[in-house]
Every structure is written in structure tokens, then in C-alpha cells.
Amino acid sequence: SLAIVDCPGIPADTWSPLWRDLPSSLTELDLSGNGLSDHAVNAVCGAFRGRHCPESLMLQRNRCKDIERLCVLIEGGGLHALDLTDNLLNDKSIAQFCTALAAPAAALPSLKLARNHRVTVSGHRQLAEQLPCSPLRHLALDGTALCDEGGEALATALPGCALDQLHVEGTQLSHAGARRLLQAAQASPSVYGLCVDEGGQRVNWRRCRDPADVLSFTAPMSYVDWC
Fold it and tell me: What is the pTM of this model?
């Protein structure tokens, strides 16, 4: 694994030699907090063209918006975890994700899009509609502008998708919207965990099939279902 984080002052041209020298055996790459532009991220993705890409790519706190090259990695099936928390993603970015997730070889189980405030209800609806046809199992939308309309789209999609963990805390969901998602999660056998704010209280709901599941859950639990 390789982590180069919180170096926003490095000129864009300085990164280029590093991308060319990245080892093909790399499984985890963390470039969070570097203020990387679309151009810089495209260069990173281009370095993996035609060869093995990392299974995990963390790009928190950068300036990603046009993610076409990232989506090529998703479509290739090599990327298994992508963290784009706190970037500049918008509805066009979500449309690009949806196209990539629909690719036959796509095998991305974990996608974190937290604190991307430019994604509107249209983007959330697009993503929800894609869930039943995607490999996603862990989706993080916490700290976004997710509202009740987007929450309803997610609630409708949950019973028919493979998602087992969903984070939507710190969003614009109302008490009723949060309750609707909780009910949908409880009615969806594949869903094992949901974190949401309901009436000013953070609810960490967890489906437990065995007492050991309780011990393995590190976050404070305020709602547990036994199956």
C-alpha cells in the first residue's frame, strides 16, 4: 500500500513522474487531501491503463468532478473500494458512476461519496435506480444534500439490491424520511446496517443473526434487529 496525504501545495506537474513509477503490485493507494484536480486524477488512472490497478483507491478531500477515467477503472473490474468523500462531484459525476456500475465486468462493492454537497435529488435518484443492477454492497452518502425524495428512491431500491450497508447520516432527511428508510432496511434481507439521523438522534441500526454480530459492531447501536 502507498499513502501520500495532505500535501495540497505540491504543483501538479510534480506528481507526473510518481504516477509513471507506481508499482504494478500496488493494492491500496491513498491520495487524500492533496487538492488533486480532474487532470491530476486522470493522470493517475491513465498510469494503470493496460495493467493491474489498486483494489482500493482513496481520494478524499480533492477536487474531483469529471470522473470518466476513474470510471474506466470501475468498468475494468479491478477496483473494489473507491472513496471520493469531500470532492466536487455533481449530478453529471453520478451519471458517470451509474454507467460504469452497469458494465458487465464492474465489481465495485464499496463506494463512499460523503460530503459531496453538489449532488442534487436528481443524482441521488439516478444512483438509487442503478443499485439493483450494481455490485455495490457498501454505500456512503452521509453529509450530502440527500432529502426525502432521494431517500424515497433509496428506500424503493433497497429490497431489490445487494446493498448491505448504507450511511445517510448528516443529510437533509426529515424524521419521516429517516423512518421510511429504516422500515425499508428492516424489510430488506440483504441490508445489515443503516446509519441515519432520526428526529435529531443518530440511529445505528444493525441486523444481527448471531450474538457475535453485536460484539463485532464497533459503532454505538441504538437499534438492533434479531433474525
Answer: 0.92
Are 192 and 167 within 8 A, CB to CB?
no
Q: In this predicted model, what pLDDT tens digit does every residue of 62-73 receive, in sequence order? A: 999 999 999 999
Beta bridge partners of 58: 30, 83
Give the phi and the psi of residue 140 in degrees, each rounded to 5: -115, 115
Sign of the Cα pseudo-torsion (136, 137, 138, 144, in order): positive
Contacts of 91 (CB under 8 A, 6+ apart): 118, 119, 120, 122, 123, 126
Task: Give pLDDT tens digits for 21-35.
Answer: 888 889 999 999 999
Burial class of 23 by CB neighbour count within 10 A (0 to 12, 13 to 18, 19+)? exposed
Q: What are the structural domains of the chain?
A: 1-106 (3.80.10.10), 120-208 (3.80.10.10)
Give me the count of residues in the chain.
227
